[in-house]
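Continuing the series of single-chain predictions for the mutant panel. This is the parent chain; the variants come on the following pages.
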Amino acid sequence: MVFRRLVAAGLMVLMLVLGFIPRSSAAPVVPPRKGPPLSQPALFSRFARENELGAEDLAELIRWEAQQATALEALPSVATQANADWNRRPQNETAIALHPRSPDTWVIGANDYGIGAPIGTGVYSNEGVNYFPPFPLLFGKGGSGSQFLLEAPIGTGDPALAYGFTRGPGRRPVVYMASLGFSSTFCENGVFVYRSLDNGRTWTRPVVPPLAPPKGLFTVVYWDSAQNCTVFHDKEFITVDNTGGPHDGRIYVTWTRFFFANGQYKESPIMMAYSDDNGLTFSDPIEISGFNPALCRTQVSGPPGECDENQFSIPVVMPDGTLVVAFENQQFRGAADGFRNQYLVVRVNPDTFAVEGPFKVADLFDGLNDYPINQDGRQTLCNSNFRVNSAGNIAVGPDGTLYLVWSDNRRHAGEFPFPTFVGSRAEGYPCPPGKATDVDVFLSKSTDGGRTWSAPVRVNQDPEGNDRDQWFPWVAVAHDGRVDVVFYDRRDDPKNKLAHTFLARSTDGGQTWTELRVSDFASNFDDAFFGTGRFIGDYNGLAIDFRGFSFPVWTGVRPGKTDSDIFFAVVGP
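Parent structure:
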């Protein structure tokens, strides 16, 4: 995600007890930088409203949906739609986990707006399950620490999934899902884990710490202050140690801890907690983003050299049990290059939890002046209105080789003096004359556990310099070392507008690539997110099973619909 100024554009999030905030007719206003941007679900929180981070009013979006025709069009598709589709509310931001032993057994997660408010985390399975895991009840305390109230969250979201095996007697396959949970009315928020022992048919309900002291149940971290909106836990991800080693079955969850004071952004370090009892309870949070004065040269607060302005952490477990976490950081040059990100990696010892690093993977060309701006003041692509980020993920091969992917606009870096806005919807959101985006997908690898990294390799194989965009990559590695990457791709549209989904493959460690188009229709994302085109998720998903079959999963908009859905394909080895 591009770490840059956030804007207060559109409507502020709905205050359930105060009514609606009216829309402003003024042109977009760009306030001072507020630090790394929040995930989309988090924008509906009171934390976002109090810290002026900007959001679209959920209630207005639902009113818009209610005005649309209710008839759904039966359109053919070779790719399979994962979610049920009983209304025109969107699903987006995908994650997938595959059963470690049973072929064609999968669970997909997504942000799902199908029930309106609260926003839910939808899960879908190969058995036709379309389910919202039970919301945790939130418990808030007043300013004096007195008991305050119980309430349901306004939403959960940012799903992340992982299969593993239970610890202890009767080692059983189990799937875990991590998710946010937050209030719109008050300031409570946290990261939660849901557990399913029946491949996603049923799930546990998390219980927050005040209701199950001292740490709660299936609760990774929780902020229970109802009136203090200084802390927000955001953009979590999950992995399981499946190495067969001493920590086999351990769950790791990483996330970003945003801290604001007096409305001013202070820091957003990467945190980690682990569970050795199948997700029932978690350790105290551990800050793992590390210290490196050479890499983290600029500082908003805290000691010099502390790497604490981050977002988009992804953890993986090495064959020897070491935890490796990749994340984006904006502290290399700060404002000097428009807050371009760098990808960093840390290593965490599973016995002592000592942090080694961070180590630098690559510089990203995704700063303030590298992309155009949409109607919300967020970075986007030419001919688009959705927000875009540069983040991808990290994956590990059976031999311990690490692979990391991202996307950026290096071919047109610096060509969009901030803020350069795209045009109107009626015009198709064009960039100003003479300007274009040409975002590409890149991969770097490490053969020494993340300490050093290769030079970036361009993954997408369309003609270089054709001003067509590829973005939202996700990488996975097969048991034989084959590397696959899924991403959105506009190469087939001369106008750089309609997007397909492609799968790229490499059998030589990422040096050369072949490609396959896995979507059977092109998506016009202007019609996503209640027909506003504002949001299509922040990433895609990909997993490879024990046979070598690939399961890419993505958000798509079928022609003729103002609605996004979740699609996946199965690609043989």
